[in-house]
């Protein structure tokens, strides 16, 4: 709860500080110059301050030390100079906001790490927090030596340099990317935090050349219906992509959130198939082969297909169906600080287009209220939803339900398992329920 402060108290402190000339140490401040605190000295002190060295790690009692109405010590000396460091980093006090590796795989190269959804705001995932999924580690690719080869059923087989590709007219679009293994633990072995239940989804602004442009340049022959994409990593990851998607909204992306792709995201070039399961967005893209049929690679037969209760397997699941999750309050996030007003907020997305509505329940699904959607609501993009809530301090079951513009409604866990059974691994998109305890702690209700 905010602390109340009297005008008298504020005046008293400000007067005292003015008398001691504590405030206002701007570059030409005489007091500092008289004391011989030159730029370098002050900068070094400020840099130490920025690193957290001079700052008490535990906050002092209200009204003392650096807290208002007192003037904090970081106002009384110069801050760190520019270019410290040249490539900016988050505050030292945010050092715990990091990707978390899975504990399900034995090797560090064929593994994945989760985005800390509980600590993020809005819809954009910062590049350093974008989830990772690598089948053979992250290759270190020299863009000067990287090529994209386009061949197969094309009139002009062609090899592009990165510079060639970057000369084509570019587009920038905001889209989510979700691993089809996101939430796979929730089938049988629920995870405690939203980072590990839902953190294999991220969203950013991608810039690149439409794949259609490149295919037109090569000239697709009649009878062609598929294109094979191959990555330049040790896994040589390959997937077959329908030409209809290739000519629709597929991108050859070289930038994310304004800067060139991170190595983890496929530097210098990746395929991005908006709304489709993550593994089809081949990273470190080096080859596109046009053909009449799918190739039935390992990653679209043995892997990424869902085994149904009757023993059959689903062939190709491309678009990720509508899904949502409350990220505040959520498992793994900060406990809710006592009864009273709170804003429930979370993320919703659909591989079929725009989110049209999100409903939120605080009583385990007996009553639902329609949440506010942050604008703009974009197709195949994360949408932030919000609902104001008065918590009476009693235990509660919080959940969200997304509906997309195709009319699809996110299923309950029961409904999903009724169709998929217990053998499916991928494409889990059921409603996620968080259990809020009287203490404010949040855990996975797994219902
Ligand atoms: N070449 C290549 N592309 C790949 C992969 C890979 O291991 N190698 N992993 C795929 C999988 S399973 C997913 S979910 C996404 C993850 O993209 P990200 O690591 O940028 O989040 O990339 C896909 N593209
Ligand atoms: Mo994936």
What does this structure look like?
The chain has 447 residues and is α+β, with helices and mostly antiparallel strands. The protein folds into three domains: 67 residues, no CATH class; 193 residues, Oxidoreductase, molybdopterin-binding domain (Sulfite Oxidase, Chain A, domain 2, Alpha-Beta Complex); 122 residues, Sandwich (Immunoglobulin-like). 14% of the residues lie in helices and 26% in strands. The strands form five sheets. A five-stranded mixed beta sheet has the order 5-4-13-8-9. Strands 6, 7, 10, 11 and 12 form a five-stranded antiparallel beta sheet that branches. A five-stranded antiparallel beta sheet has the order 17-16-20-21-22, with no helix packed on it. A hairpin with a 2-residue loop joins strand 10 and strand 11. The longest helix has 14 residues. It is globular. The chain starts with 6 loop residues before the first helix and ends with a strand. About 7% of the residues have low confidence. Bound molecules: ligand MTE and molybdenum atom. Molybdenum atom binds next to loops.
């Amino acid at each position: 709860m905010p602390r109340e402060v009297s005008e008298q108290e504020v005046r008293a402190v400000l007067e005292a500080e003015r008398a001691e000339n504590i405030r206002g140490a701007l570059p030409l401040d005489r007091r500092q110059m008289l004391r011989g605190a030159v730029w370098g000295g002050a900068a070094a002190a400020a840099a130490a301050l920025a690193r957290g060295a001079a700052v008490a790690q535990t906050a002092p009692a209200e009204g003392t030390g650096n807290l208002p109405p007192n003037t904090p010590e970081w106002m009384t000396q110069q801050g760190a100079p520019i270019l410290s460091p040249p490539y900016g980093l988050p505050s030292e006090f945010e050092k715990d906001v990091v990707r978390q590796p899975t504990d399900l795989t034995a090797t560090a190269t064929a593994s994945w790490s989760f985005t800390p959804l509980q600590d993020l705001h809005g819809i954009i995932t910062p590049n350093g927090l974008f989830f990772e999924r690598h089948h053979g580690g992250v290759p270190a690719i020299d863009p000067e030596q990287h090529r994209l080869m386009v061949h197969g059923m094309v009139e002009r087989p062609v090899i592009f340099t990165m510079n060639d590709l970057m000369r084509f007219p570019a587009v920038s679009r905001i889209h989510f990317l979700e691993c089809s293994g996101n939430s796979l633990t929730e089938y049988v072995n629920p995870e405690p935090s939203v980072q590990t239940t839902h953190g294999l989804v991220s969203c950013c602004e991608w810039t690149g050349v439409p794949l259609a442009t490149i295919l037109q340049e090569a000239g697709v022959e009649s009878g062609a219906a598929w294109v094979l994409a191959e990555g330049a990593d040790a896994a040589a990851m390959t997937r077959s992509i329908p030409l209809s998607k290739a000519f629709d909204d597929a991108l050859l992306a070289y930038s994310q959130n304004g800067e060139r792709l991170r190595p983890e995201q496929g530097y210098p070039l990746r395929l991005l198939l908006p709304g489709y399961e993550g593994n089809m967005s081949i990273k470190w893209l080096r080859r596109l082969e046009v053909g009449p049929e799918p190739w039935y690679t390992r990653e679209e037969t043995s892997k990424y297909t869902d085994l149904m209760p009757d023993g059959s397997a689903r062939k190709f699941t491309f678009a990720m169906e509508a899904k949502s999750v409350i990220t505040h309050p959520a498992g793994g996030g900060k406990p809710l600080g006592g009864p009273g007003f709170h804003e429930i907020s979370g993320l919703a997305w659909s591989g079929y287009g725009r989110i049209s509505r999100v409903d939120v329940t605080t009583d385990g699904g007996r009553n639902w209220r329609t949440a506010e959607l942050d604008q703009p609501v974009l197709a195949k993009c994360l949408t932030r939803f919000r609902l104001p809530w008065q918590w009476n301090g009693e235990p509660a079951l919080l959940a969200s339900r997304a509906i997309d513009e195709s009319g699809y409604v996110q299923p309950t866990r029961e409904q999903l398992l009724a169709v998929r059974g217990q053998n499916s691994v991928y494409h889990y998109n059921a409603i996620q329920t968080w259990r809020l305890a009287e203490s404010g702690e949040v855990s996975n209700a797994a219902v």
